[in-house]
Amino acid sequence: MPLLNADRLLNFDEAPTIEAYTETDTMLYGLSLGYGSDPLDERQLRYVFERDLVAVPTMAHTLAMDASWITDPASGIDLAKMLHAESGLTVHNPLPASGRVSSKLKIPEIIDKGEGRGALLYFARELSDAATGQHLATITSTFFLRGNGGFGGANRSASPPAAIPDRAADFSLPIATLPQSALLYRLTGDDNPLHADPELARKVGFDRPILHGSCTYGVACRALIHLVCGDDPHRLGRIDVRFTAPTYPGEALLTEVWNMGEGQFVFRCRVVERDIVVLNHGVAQLRDA
Questions:
Q1: Which of 190, 212, 226, 281 is catalytic?
Q2: Residue ending a domain, choose from 128, 145, 162
């Protein structure tokens, strides 16, 4: 495996990625998060039924994402040792239920933790309406490249995560994921066989296929929309989170939320059955605060 080609990545400047999506895509994303589990609940139906259909804000992560720079051997990324560490979303305008979007990606920083300690790669995408140019969202992610430390890059301490208060949560909501959640979610674009193939999952140390971290993130967004947005997804302005452990499809996720004032909240998600925190140090901000 070659050394990480940091110069190539930091100077990445490809043409914007364009993608058209339909109401069916939006409904499929909603179904993968468990919306529609109660088909008589109008609050759930608006994400999975074409009448007055709205998009879950975190669906922006699935749109116009060109991952060829990750899999390109010239980048030098050790894919077998890459982990998705963090995800973030800042909403500038509500995502339409269908449309055509343009995404422009930049890699602003790579932290070299040293030989044997890995590297942190940060990237950001600006998502816009391809027809009108309206800025829809800024999408961020951090990858922990466990096999790419010691490439000769700069090292610094990563930004400290949001602190979770040492008191009981102000709000909480359990949401059961579906046994088929991973099989549904991979149809939104991430078809990694780790989320579908039992044999492959066992080979890499899991009892069975795991749920996509970004699907767990979407379920947390679903809980926040209900708990702090009054079931209005357009009120959510920001949702950032750190991944700490995998979730298995079918497990229940308990989202715990603390009100920090001025429209800002911190949160975490734990798997009820195993009492393990799978998302931590989350931050959410209301747009109208």
A1: 190
A2: 145
